[in-house]
Amino acid sequence: MKAWLVAFASGALFGVGLLVSGMTDPGKVVGFLDLFGAWDPSLAFVMVGAIGVHALSYRSVRARNAPLFDDRFHVPEARGVDAPLVAGAALFGIGWGLSGYCPGPALVSLGTLSPSPFVFTAAMAGGMVLCAVLRKRFKS
Questions:
Q1: Which 3 state secondary structure label does DSSP give 95?
Q2: Residue 37, SS3?
Q3: Domain residues for 12?
Q4: pLDDT score for 48
Q5: pLDDT of residue 140 exceeding 70
Q6: What are phi and psi of 45, to 5 degrees?
Q7: Count of domains observed in the chain
Q8: What is the DSSP letter of 24?
Q9: DSSP H or E segment with residue 121
Q10: Other residues' Cβ atoms within 10 Å of the Cβ of residue 127
């Protein structure tokens, strides 16, 4: 089986999981983030389930010499906490809190043809372009 087919199937399964869990509903996400108002803890169960699946599978996957469809694992090498990481995390949290979307659910929500995921995705793409421009400018 081709690697792209496995990647497509994995992405489709992830998208279905986002739909079933309610992660594509911005109101549900904002309700989860509203700790001192009408807090909706249901997404905590989604997160705990995802962490559990990851914890169970991580050790067995990393015990392999290489993934099934590549010659090596592509693991980030940066380990430190720096200003770009903190700024990016802050921007992610602000965007998630204001819109109720994070990147994966926003892309899945494009299929609804509702305007809000398109606005979020355009802003996210603009932020990616701006980040690339700023990195290039300040690394020189």
A1: helix
A2: coil
A3: 3-139
A4: 92
A5: no
A6: -65, -35
A7: 1
A8: T
A9: helix 115-139
A10: 14
Alpha-carbon span 45 to 32, nearest angstrom: 11
**Averaged pLDDT of the chain:** 88
Token reading at 34: 């509203």
95 contacts: CB under 8 Å, gap ≥ 6 = 101, 102, 120, 123, 124
Amino acid identity at 10: S
- CA distance linking residue 14 with residue 104, whole number of Å: 9
The contacts of residue 107 (CB under 8 Å, 6+ apart) are: 15, 117, 121
Amino acid occupying residue 51: I
Whole-angstrom Cα distance, residue 39 to residue 30?
9
For 80, the 3-state DSSP assignment is coil
**Could you give the CA distance from residue 40 to residue 30 in angstroms, rounded to a whole number?**
9
- Asked if residue 1 has pLDDT above 80, the reply is no
**H or E stretch at 4:** helix 3-21
Report the alpha-carbon distance of residue 68 to residue 2 in Å, rounded.
Answer: 11
Measured distance CA(79)–CA(93) in Å, rounded: 21
Within 13 Å and on the Cβ side, how many CA atoms surround 113?
A: 0
